[in-house]
């Protein structure tokens, strides 16, 4: 069902970048001012299914709203020294067809705009698409033709090189947050694109300590900055957090090379929106599943750790080498442990790539510490595999259960566990956002790695 006509005009943008460069968030940042219309609310950075094979990097699409501003505007960014302001509400929409023509022309001529290998798409509309179009695109693989047909039937759109970009453009405008976060993204000066970035690591550490409402900025275990990209795109850095004020204050604390400006995005990052609760393990989707460990974890080539889980569906689960110390938690599992796994399903070989792990109940691990003593006073010996014990003096026999056993201590405990910040996906919800603390944070110790990140 299409929602009622809005007092603002929706704009969705996707697929302006390719693997060689560009950035859709940068295009949206520049269009926010170049539209010469009142910006309504923060632009939205909407991450979609991270498992689709044709994504460039973070599979992000952008949505903006324009209209005739109402209320007191607030500064949400700066562009080349000028403030970027957004109004809290709109009195009226603007012409969507005229707006589409203007935005396409600006993006097409913009340095860092449409990249040669991209299939850019811009969609404008006066009515909000059904939220199902967002949920299907963030949790699965959807037909391009369906989203393209919707765009043409219920709005105005333009594409180049293909229609795939309309999936993200439509889905981004259909997002109605159940949960949300924010990211203040700073962009590099054009003359620095493609060169090494400079962001003071010491300032990132200080910011992470001073602003607890931010997250995924620094990896304290690996001693590395996480808020800078590694591609030749125009992004300098991005501070992620719970509120616009938190990310803007965090950004102001950082020391870096000069930026051409910054802007605050409302995002679905760190929300787990991509995760389906239960269901079948369909390739290129993410799910949470509960079961029992059926095979003791084993190290495999490449430094990865794998184990088998049996529940509603049998799953081979994998913790990749980049998850580093998280693999020690996985190695601590034994057969019979009851756990919930969260992750993405790979196609070949079929299995689940771990994003989080919840240990619900630990199995008891017992070890024989002594053979039984015969009534005649002699310590018995094994009579053979599965045959119990036999006294060498009098020949008396005793079952295997008469040995003395002790419960072994476990290196892990019930609770939630996650990889360190440098190995998390954009959409994965950090345990810090679940109110469970951050065992990889600045005050963690090596000893705490074997302790639960969150208790049940």
Question: Would you give an account of this structure?
Answer:
With 456 residues, the chain is of the alpha+beta class. The chain has four domains: 5-174, Alpha-Beta Plaits (2-Layer Sandwich), CATH 3.30.70; 181-267, Glycinamide Ribonucleotide Synthetase, Chain A, domain 4 (Alpha-Beta Complex); 275-364 and 409-450, OB fold (Dihydrolipoamide Acetyltransferase, E2P), CATH 2.40.50.1010; 366-407, no CATH class. Helix content is 18%, strand content 33%. It is built from eight helices and 28 strands. The strands form six sheets. Strands 1, 2, 3, 4, 6, 7, 9, 10, 11, 12, 15 and 16 form a twelve-stranded mixed sheet that branches. β6 and β7 (82-86) form a beta hairpin. α3 (132-139) packs across α5 (165-174) and α4 (144-154) crosses α5. The longest helix has 14 residues, at 96-109. The model is unreliable at 445-456 (pLDDT under 50).
Q: What are the SSEs and their pairings?
A:
Blueprint: E1 5-14, H1 24-34, E2 38-39, E3 44-47, E4 60-67, E5 69-70, E6 74-79, E7 82-86, E8 89-90, H2 96-109, E9 121-127, H3 132-139, H4 144-154, E10 156-159, H5 165-174, E11 181-188, H6 201-210, E12 214-215, E13 218-219, E14 224-225, E15 235-241, H7 244-253, E16 259-267, E17 275-277, E18 286-300, E19 304-311, E20 314-319, H8 326-331, E21 338-346, E22 351-361, E23 366-370, E24 381-382, E25 389-390, E26 397-398, E27 404-407, E28 415-417
Parallel strand pairs: 3-16, 17-18, 20-22
Antiparallel strand pairs: 1-4, 1-9, 2-4, 3-4, 5-8, 6-7, 6-16, 9-10, 11-15, 11-16, 12-15, 13-14, 18-19, 18-21, 19-20, 21-22, 22-28, 23-27, 24-25, 25-26
């Amino acid at each position: 069902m299409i929602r009622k006509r809005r007092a603002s005009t929706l704009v969705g943008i996707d697929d302006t970048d390719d693997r060689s460069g560009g950035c859709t968030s940068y295009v949206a940042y520049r269009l926010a001012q170049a539209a010469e219309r009142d910006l309504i609310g923060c632009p939205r950075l909407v991450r979609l299914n991270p498992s689709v094979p044709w994504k460039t990097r973070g599979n992000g699409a952008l949505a903006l709203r324009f209209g005739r501003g109402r209320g007191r505007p607030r500064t949400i960014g700066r562009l080349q020294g000028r403030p970027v302001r957004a109004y809290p509400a709109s009195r009226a929409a603007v012409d969507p067809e005229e707006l589409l023509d203007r935005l396409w022309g600006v993006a097409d001529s913009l340095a860092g705009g449409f990249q040669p290998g991209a299939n850019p798409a811009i969609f404008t509309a006066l009515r909000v698409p059904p939220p199902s179009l967002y949920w299907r695109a963030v949790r699965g693989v959807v037909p391009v033709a369906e989203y393209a047909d919707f765009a043409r039937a219920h709005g105005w759109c333009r594409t180049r090189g293909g229609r795939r970009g309309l999936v993200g453009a439509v889905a981004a405008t259909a997002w109605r947050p159940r949960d949300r976060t924010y990211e203040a993204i700073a962009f590099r000066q054009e003359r620095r694109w493609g060169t090494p970035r400079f962001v003071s690591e010491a300032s990132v550490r200080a910011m992470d300590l001073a602003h607890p409402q931010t997250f995924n900025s620094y990896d304290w275990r690996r001693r590395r900055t996480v808020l800078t990209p590694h591609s030749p795109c125009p992004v300098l850095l991005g501070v992620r957090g719970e509120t616009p004020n938190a990310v803007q204050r965090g950004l102001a604390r950082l020391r870096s090379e000069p930026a051409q400006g910054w802007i605050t995005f409302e995002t679905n990052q760190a929300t787990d929106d991509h995760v389906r609760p239960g269901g079948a393990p369909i390739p290129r989707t993410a799910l949470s599943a509960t079961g029992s460990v059926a095979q003791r974890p084993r190290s495999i080539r490449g430094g990865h750790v794998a184990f088998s889980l049996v529940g509603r569906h049998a799953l081979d689960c994998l913790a990749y080498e980049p998850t580093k110390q998280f693999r020690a938690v996985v190695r601590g599992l034994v057969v019979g442990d009851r756990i919930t796994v969260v992750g993405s399903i790979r196609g070949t070989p079929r299995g689940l790539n771990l994003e989080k792990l919840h240990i619900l109940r630990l199995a008891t691990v017992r070890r024989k510490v002594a053979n039984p003593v015969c009534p005649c006073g002699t310590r018995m010996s094994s009579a053979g595999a599965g045959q119990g014990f036999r006294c060498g003096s009098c020949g008396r026999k005793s079952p295997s259960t008469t040995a003395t056993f002790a419960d072994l201590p476990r290196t892990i405990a019930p609770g939630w566990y996650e990889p360190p910040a440098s190995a998390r996906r954009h959409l994965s919800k950090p345990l810090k956002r679940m109110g469970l603390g951050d065992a990889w944070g600045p005050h963690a110790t090596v000893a705490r790695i074997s302790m639960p990140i969150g208790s049940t």
